[in-house]
Specification:
The complex is a heterodimer. By secondary structure, chain A is α/β, with parallel strands linked by helices. In chain A, strand 16 and strand 17 form a beta hairpin. The model of chain A has no long low-confidence stretch (mean pLDDT about 90). The radius of gyration of chain B is 21 Å and the shape is globular. Chain B has 2 domains: about 1-30 and about 310-350, no CATH class; about 50-310, Orthogonal Bundle (ABC transporter involved in vitamin B12 uptake, BtuC). Chain B has helices spanning about 1-25, 30-45, 45-70, 80-95, 100-130, 135-155, 180-185, 195-210, 210-220, 225-230, 235-260, 270-280, 285-310, 315-330, 330-350. By secondary structure, chain B is mainly α. Helix content of chain B is about 80%, strand content about 0%. The chains are: A alpha/beta, B mainly alpha. The interface between A and B is medium-sized, with 29 and 21 residues.
Chain lengths: ~500, ~350
């Protein structure tokens, strides 16, 4: 069979790490080929080499059977290779057409000729079922639509090989279904696709072959149809993994957090959370599902004290905490695994031991009369790193910035749980993590619940909410649109509620 | 490892600055070796000159600490010059108005100067904390406010005996100069400010590395979102950080106008204010690094006059060397890369 792209024996090292070790991967014409691996396995490095962002130390790249040197992304484009990055590269106040022609603007003397471009974009859009309006402004269209603009950008440049970097991370379940359809259309038109992902379900749904990478080495290339997700997961992680969260039934106890008619404004002064009421009890994990940007961030910030509540009340352990200070809430037994671990969760330039005392540096034994006690801090950090399996090159003295995302997140989870909180608010606790770390963090959350603590889990990953929660609440446009027991619902129904279609029965 | 790296960077910047200075000297037709020998002899030749070098360094240590402290807490303060003026004005005003025994007098003056500088700096701090006004803009504006405050208040209340443009001389009991120190260094400008500067360096090092206050301030400086998340009062810390930074610059003002000098002149923003930025940069914002780099700049400052007197090399060469060093210190990223490259290479070969 004809190979459109071949990367043969490619190696690439960075200071102290061999990111790609003798990797070979062959892409057939018209196939969807998944590239599966944990974070830091070397997927992105490999694709960056193909796209001309990095230069390989050794190895050969062949496109359509001919050996090529890809020095920069322009060369990649000229060879018909395009990439949809995880973070879109679009100009927000430009129209779709303006964004697509950026860099290759058709001109007539000093004037732009957008009409032809616009027509061609329309054609492409219809042909591949993308449903994009060429004259819409980027800031006015949804995230899913923006992704399709990125796809159109590649098609407009006649790309034959399309690289998708974690394309579903930002999409709702329905948008994911749409994207799968588009990928099938692309394949039908003989385009070849490389799909970078760590989501096995998607690979199963769409890819034909899958190359698994672990620690910079190819573990193997398999036919997706003949391989179970279990096997692929084991190839990726290098050991057995359990997908099912082990969770026994448990009667929830008294109410720990009681939110009544809460209204919160967003930074842009719009009503982000509207008359929101919710109770979280001891011994339960309450999952809050919703599409990104539907008020979850503001709700959590109001609960933790980072944002002012406009009206309504927050009762925590029977006390009114609506206007309590952040520190007051932490001391009162609230812990928070923040949405953005690098923005909120860690001081990246601090060492691990300094990060572990972020909320408790003022307490004995970590400090006394304003002076810091290094010894106690170090012992505390060593204990937590051991208990929560946080791995870092220089132990407790490792700078947080130098650590992998998974270890950073485990450190935050460990720190928050070490405060022995009554309520743990976990926002996107496994975002961007590999299967091994996800499994570990899930176990810890369930442990909290089993220990009689309350857990509020806010996640964009529907699977995660479905697997972990004892009850599922759905938020859409800042309002509670549903409350379900996981056993009595399915992804489709929750997906509809996430899109704002309210459903009757409350659990 | 970080510390060795900073030291390497600073030394490389100094070395390259000196090499560049040598090239400039050669270009003006002078002998660089002769030039440098006079420059360093000018700064270090005898006890009097060493005393003058240390006296120049005293002010720079304090303004350098002021900038470095703000920088460590995530703030870029350009306001040391204005805070120096206010500190100097408060010290001068107290020195000319009160009559106390020398120890008590100096204590009151230094306290006043520190408070004056702190208050002056806490205004940009407040504006930053409440309205997110960038401190670079507001501290520069405060510099000019200080300039005009001095411009009007000195002639109005403390006019000099002969000149309208300067204050009266401060009396002996209000001067930081003391006989035993002046005698020790053969009548140089050296004064008690040096001891103050050493103490301030030690205290700032202690605050930054050992106290919960330093922990909070640095956390806010590195990542105010994470600090806020952890329940640290970010606004209070920003005001506090600039306040402490301003107190240091205020003290610099007291040592400059009531120690190095004997009166205050109007219409001048003290150069030591802006030089503090260079000192902090070369000292990698670490307290003792700042101290060392201030002493080095002190040598250049007090040596350049001697070099000029003994050779045809213009004194501006001294400033050029300083400027070049600052330039190299600012582009230190390149050195750090080079240093890492060397380390890797040696490791590989070893």
């Amino acid at each position: 069979m004809e190979h459109i792209v071949e990367m043969l024996n490619v190696s690439k090292s960075f200071p102290g790490i061999l990111a790609n070790d003798d990797i070979s991967i062959q892409l057939r014409k018209g196939e969807i080929h998944a590239l599966l691996g944990e974070n830091g396995a070397g997927k992105s490095t490999l694709m960056s080499i193909l796209f001309g962002l990095y230069k390989a130390d050794s190895g050969v790249i062949k496109v359509r059977g001919k050996e090529v040197q890809i020095h920069n992304p322009n060369v990649a484009n000229a060879l018909g290779i395009g990439m949809v990055h995880q973070h879109f590269k679009l100009v927000h106040n430009f129209t779709v057409t303006e964004n697509i022609i950026l860099g290759i603007e058709p001109v007539n003397g000093p004037f732009l000729k957008t009409a032809d471009a616009s027509r061609r974009i329309k054609e492409l859009s219809v042909r591949y079922g993308l449903d994009v309006d060429p004259d819409a402004r980027i800031e006015d269209i949804s995230v899913g639509m923006q992704q399709r603009v990125e796809i159109l950008k590649m098609l407009y440049r006649d790309a034959e090989v399309l690289i998708f970097d974690e394309p579903t991370a930002v999409l709702t379940p329905q948008e994911i279904v749409d994207l799968m359809k588009i990928m099938r259309n692309l394949k039908a038109e003989d385009k070849s696709i490389i799909l970078i992902t760590h989501k096995l379900k998607e690979i199963k749904a769409i890819a034909e072959r899958c190359t698994v990478i672990r620690r910079g080495k190819v573990v193997g290339t398999v036919d997706v149809a003949g391989t179970s997700t279990q096997v692929m997961a084991e190839m990726m992680v290098g050991r057995q993994v359990s997908f099912k969260v082990d969770k026994r039934d448990r009667e929830p106890g008294e109410v720990v957090l009681d939110i009544k008619d809460l209204c919160v404004q967003s930074s842009r002064k719009t009503q982000a959370v509207k008359n929101f009421s919710l109770q979280v009890r001891r011994g339960e994990i309450l999952g809050l599902a919703g599409v990104d940007g539907n008020g979850q961030t503001e709700l959590v910030e109001a609960l933790t004290g980072l944002r002012k509540a406009e009206s309504g009340s927050i009762l925590f352990m029977g006390k009114d905490m609506t206007h309590a200070s952040i520190r007051g809430r932490i001391r009162g037994g609230m812990a928070h695994i923040p949405e953005d671990r690098q923005k909120r969760g860690l001081v990246l330039d601090y060492t691990m031991e300094e990060n572990f005392i972020l909320e408790i540096y003022g307490l004995e034994p970590f400090s006394k009369r304003g002076f810091i006690n290094r010894k106690a801090i170090r012992a505390h950090a060593a204990k937590l790193m051991d208990a929560f399996d946080v791995r870092a090159g220089q132990g407790t003295l490792s700078i947080a910035r130098t650590m992998s995302g998974g270890n950073q997140q485990k450190a935050i989870v460990g720190r928050e749980i070490s405060h022995d909180p009554e309520l743990l608010i976990a926002v996107q606790p496994t975002r961007g993590l590999d299967v091994g770390s996800i499994e570990y963090i899930h176990k810890r959350l369930v442990e909290q619940r089993d220990g009689g603590k309350a857990v509020l889990l806010v996640s964009l990953e529907l699977d995660e909410v479905m697997d972990l929660s004892d009850r599922i609440a759905v938020i859409s446009h800042g309002e509670l649109t549903g409350m379900k027991l996981p056993a009595e619902t399915n992804e489709g129904e929750i997906g509809l509620m996430m899109a704002g279609v309210a459903s009757g029965g409350h659990a | 490892m970080n510390r060795t790296r900073s030291l390497f960077t600073a030394l490389a910047a100094v070395l390259l600055g000196l090499v560049a200075g040598a090239i400039f000297m050669a270009l003006t037709g002078a002998d660089p070796f002769k030039g440098y020998s006079f420059l360093f002899r000018g700064g270090l030749m005898n006890l009097e000159r060493i005393g003058n070098t240390l006296a120049s360094a005293t002010t720079l240590v304090l303004t350098g600490l002021s900038v470095a402290f703000a920088f460590r807490t995530g703030l870029f303060s350009i306001g040391a010059a204005g805070q120096m003026l206010i500190g100097g004005l408060v010290a001068t005003a107290l020195g000319l108005s009160l009559e106390l025994s020398k120890p008590l007098m100096l204590f009151v003056m230094l306290l006043g100067a520190a408070l004056g500088g702190a208050l002056w700096a806490s205004i940009p701090g407040y504006l930053k904390a409440k309205f997110n006004v960038h401190e670079v803009v507001s501290t520069i504006m405060m510099n000019w406010l200080a300039y005009w405050v001095v411009y009007y208040s000195i002639p109005a209340y403390f006019k000099g005996t002969f000149l309208e443009t300067e204050s009266r001389r401060i009396p002996e009991y209000a001067s930081l100069r003391v006989d035993w120190l002046s005698d020790l260094f053969k009548g140089s400008y050296i004064n008690l400010g040096l001891i103050l500067a050493i103490g301030a360096t030690a205290i700032i090092a202690l605050i930054l590395n050992r106290t919960t206050l330093g922990y909070e301030l640095k956390a806010v400086g590195f990542n105010r979102h994470a600090a806020e998340y952890a329940g640290i009062d970010v606004s209070r810390n920003i005001i506090m950080a600039l306040g402490i930074s301003g107190a240091l610059a205020g003290l610099a003002g007291a040592t400059f106008y009531a120690g190095y000098s004997v009166n205050m002149q109007i219409g001048v923003l003290p150069a030591a204010g802006l030089d503090g930025i260079a000192v902090a940069l070369l000292g990698a914002n670490s307290p003792w690094g700042v101290f060392a780099s201030a002493v080095f700049f002190g040598i250049l400052h007090s040596g350049k006059g001697f070099m000029n007197a003994m050779t045809d090399i213009p004194p501006e060469i001294g400033d050029t060397i300083i400027a070049t060093i600052i330039y190299f210190a600012a582009t230190s990223v390149l050195f750090v890369r080079f240093y890492d490259f060397l380390r890797r290479k040696f490791k590989k070969e070893a």
